[in-house]
Amino acid sequence: TTTDGGLNWTADTLSNNIPPQDIASADGRTVVAVGSGGEVLVSKDSGATWMDQTPPTKIQFSSVKYLSSDLVAAIGNVDGLFVSNDSGKTWTRHQMPSGLNVQFAFGDSSNCWICDDSSRIFHSTDLGLTWTFQNEQNIPAPPLYGISFLGDSTGCAVGAGGFITATSDGGNTWSLETSGTTHNLYGVFVASPWNAWAVGDGGTILASSGGLSTWSSQASPTTATLRSISFSDSLNGYILGDNGTILKTTDGGATWTPTASPANSLNAMKFTGPDTGWIAGDGGNIFNTSDGGANWTSQKSGSGANIFSLDFLNSKQGIAIGDSSVVLTTDNGGAYTGIRDPGGTLPTAFALYQNYPNPFNPSTTVRFDLKQPSTVTLEIYNTLGQRVKYWNYGMMNAGRYNENINMGQYASGVYFYRIAALGRDGEEFTSVKKLMLVK
Question: What is the pTM of this model?
Fold first, then answer.
C-alpha cells in the first residue's frame, strides 16, 4: 500500500496466504481483494487488516418439497438437507448421513426418508436434525434411485436392476418385492396403501395392485428412459422421461399416451390438478400448461441456471431450485403479467416513479419509463438487504410500463424497489425508491 502517490510502499500480508488475482478500492480506505479460488478479502483500514468474506460454496439443489405455506425442504450437493421457514428466502442446513445421489420423501411435515447410491435408507422424525438407519435386512442391495411415501406409514424405494422394497410401518421393516424386470428403476409414486407405480429404463412402467408386494408391467408407448411419475388424483397422472418425453394417463394408469413436449432437456414436473402443471429443465426453462399438456407456455424464470426440481403448494405458490444455489419462487403461478406499453409519445428519458398507492395493502403499482430498447430487471429488497422479489424482463421496447406487485405474503414494513436498465446503445440506468406495506 502507498499513501504518498507511490513514492513509498508498505508490504501487507493477506490472511490465509491467499495469492490475490485482483484488488480494488473506491475510496482508498475500503479495499477488496479476490483470489483465484473464489476467495474475497475486505479491508476497512486501507489494507492494515483484512477480513475473510469469502461467500459460501455454491449449492447444486436437486430436490425440493413444499411442506406447508412457509415450510420448504430441499436436498443439496453439500451433504445437507436445507430447510426454509419463509418459502425459500432463507435456508438452514441440516446435516445428512449421506451425500451419494440422495433422493428424499416426506410423510407429514417432520417425517423424512432418504435413500442413496449405497442402497441405504435413513429416517428422520425432526426434519433432518437426527437420522436413523432403517433397512439393515435388505443389505446388500443395489443403488437406490427413488423413494416415495404416503403419509407416515406406506413407502416404497426403487433402484438398479429392477429392485423394489416396500414398507407399511414407516420403515421399521422393509420387504423385498418382485418387480419382474431387470431394468433400472428411477421414479416411484405411492398413491394408496394398495396402489403404486414405478418407472425406469427402456420405457419401463410398473404398477402394483392389492398392495405393494404384487407388481406387473404396463404397456408403454416409448423406449426412452423414464425418470419420474406422479398423480394429481386417482385417475390423472404424468410421467417425465429423457429427451423431453412426457406421458399422460386419464384412467388411473391403465393406459399411457405421449403428450406434447416444450423442450428436450426437462428435469422436473409438478401438476396441481388434471390440467394444470409446470415443467422445468436446463437453461432456466420453466413451462406451464392449463390444458393437460396439449399446449405449453414459456414462463420467464429470470435465471439461466439448470432447474432440477420444482414444487407447487397450490396453483399459485411455487418454488424451483437448481444449479448455483438458484432458488426461484412465485406467488402467481409463474405468470408473466403486469407489463404494459400504453403507446403514445415515447419517453425522452429513463425514469422510475413512486409506487401508488403508498402505503399499500397488499398490492401496489410501480411505473417506469424506457427511452430506448433496454434489458430490464426489477427487484424488491427488505431492510436487511435481502431480495424478496425479482423480475427479469429481458429486452423491452422503449415505452411506459407498469408492474402490479402483490406483497400479501410479506410482513408489514419498509421495502425498497430497484430498477436496472441497460440501453441498446450501452447507456445504463438504475434507480431505487422506498415503498411501505401496512397491514
Answer: 0.67
3-class SS letters over 321-336: EEHHHCEEEECCCCCC
- For 154, the grid coordinates are 406406506
Is 244 within 8 Å of 288 (Cβ atoms)? Answer: no
Report the C-alpha gap between 166 and 146 in whole angstroms.
12
The answer to whether 20 touches 36, Cβ cutoff 8 Å, is: no
Cis before 97? omega within 30 = no
Q: 389 and 370 in contact (C-beta within 8 Å)? A: no
Rounded to 5°, angle at Cα 259 from 258 and 261:
115
Helix, strand or coil, per DSSP, at residue 11: coil
What does the alpha-carbon distance between residue 312 and residue 194 come to, in Å, rounded to a whole number?
Answer: 26
DSSP string, 381-434: E-TTS-EEEEEEEEEE-SEEEEEEEE-TTS-SEEEEEEEEEEETTS-EEEEEEE
Question: How far, in Å, CA of 97 to CA of 363, rounded?
Answer: 44
Q: Is the peptide bond before 258 cis (omega within 30 degrees of 0)?
A: no
pLDDT at 138 over 60: no
Above 70 in pLDDT, residue 17? Answer: no
- Alpha carbon 57 to its chain's center: 17
Give the three cell numbers for residue 162: 429392477
Say if strands 72-76 and 80-84 run parallel, antiparallel, or are unpaired. Answer: antiparallel
C-alpha 233/C-alpha 306 separation (Å) is 29
- Residue keyed to cell 410401518: 169
Reported as a pLDDT band with limits 50, 70 and 90, residue 342 is very low
CB 241 within 8 A of CB 225: yes
